[in-house]
Amino acid sequence: MIKRGYRTMFVLALGCAAGGAFARGPWRANEGNTPGWPLMSPAERIEHQARVRGFRTHDDCLRHRENHLRLIALRARTAEREVAGGPDFCAHLQARTDQP
Fold first, then answer.
1. Dihedral through CA 65, CA 66, CA 67, CA 72, nearest 10?
2. Which of 9, 22, 38, 53 is packed most tightly, with the most Cβ within 10 A?
């Protein structure tokens, strides 16, 4: 029988060794990685996160990002605010190979 402390260490080591999504956990949208976060409703934030998590390829995600940035730029102009482009929220897919 494995003691509780060793079991926890084993699971953590397995997660680190596995790399990928298991070690990092699922991608989460937030104000640090999603341009225009304050200009989105809570429902839009949830939908955005689900869409980005659902992409299988970096290219598909980039197309969504372009559309998202256009929408946010329009909202920012309407609200007379500035929004920077921000980090690439599709970067988590860059290391993955395109899968059918």
1. 80
2. 53
